[in-house]
From TrEMBL:
Protein name (record): Leucine-rich repeat-containing protein 3
Gene: Lrrc3
Major location category of this protein: membrane
Topology versus the membrane: Single-pass membrane protein
Family named by the database record: Belongs to the LRRC3 family.
Origin species: Hippolais icterina (icterine warbler)
Keyword Phosphoprotein: no
Pfam families: LRR_8, LRRNT
């Protein structure tokens, strides 16, 4: 009876994932899962965690609502993983309270701006194979980036070869607007599409006129042949 009473007194969410270590840090709960060969974010993280370290693992994706139940979360360290994909709602539920988010040294080449722009956290995005595009530019302009690491956000690929290998901040400081580059690309694509449709219409009209002209010629030959055939018959 005393055992069951003890179970009832244990608060929900106080257990620790088997591959992690839970401890008190600065008077708050910290869950340490560094270098544990994790391939995904653990499902059984205590709800009252404040500091969460998931660095140096093999996590490849941050799915939607990955931390939604962790309402006290203030710091997440996801550095040195193999993250390639971050869903739009990856940090839904923790955006308001999160103070620090480390995504450095992963395999991220693009990220939905919706996933980060709602955050008030200080972001570390360095040492990823970024594709320098409009969405990344908007993140750089509007998100709270860690100033010590912003120079290490480098263009691994880009719309123009001359940007490759350069820090994104350097490219933008040179007056490049990646969003206008995308707009120009869309304008060119639209122009090519419209030109294609226009060419198809012209070809159709030419074929239609030629077909009608041939029919008219055949009909004229037929009419001219009628009197001579009549005379021959007489």
């Amino acid at each position: 009876q005393a055992f069951f009473c003890l179970l009832l007194c244990i608060p929900w969410g106080s257990s620790c994932p088997p591959s992690c270590q839970c401890m008190e840090r600065e008077g708050a709960k910290a869950v340490l899962c560094s270098s544990r060969h994790l391939e995904e974010i653990p499902k059984d993280i205590p709800r009252d965690v404040v500091f969460l370290k998931l660095d140096a693992n093999s996590i490849t994706r941050i799915p939607s609502n990955a931390f939604r139940h962790l309402s006290h979360l203030e710091e997440i360290d996801l550095s040195r993983n193999a993250i390639e994909k971050i869903d739009r709602a990856a940090f839904k539920g923790v955006a308001a309270g999160l103070r620090s988010l480390d995504l450095s040294s992963n395999r991220i080449h693009s990220i939905p701006k919706e996933a980060l722009l709602a955050l008030n956290a200080k972001l570390r995005l360095a040492n990823n194979p970024w594709h320098c595009e409009c969405a990344l530019q908007e993140v750089l302009w509007e998100a709270r980036l860690d100033l010590d690491s912003v120079q290490d956000i480098t263009c691994h690929t880009a719309p123009r070869q001359e940007y490759v290998g350069k820090p994104l901040l350097q490219v933008l400081d040179a007056g490049v607007n990646l969003c206008s580059v995308r707009q120009r690309t869309m304008d060119v694509a639209m122009f090519v599409t419209m030109f294609g449709w226009f060419a198809m219409v012209i070809v159709y009209v030419v074929c239609y006129v030629r077909h009608n002209r041939e029919d008219s010629c055949r009909h004229g030959h037929y009419l001219r042949s009628l009197p001579s055939a009549q005379a021959h018959a007489e």
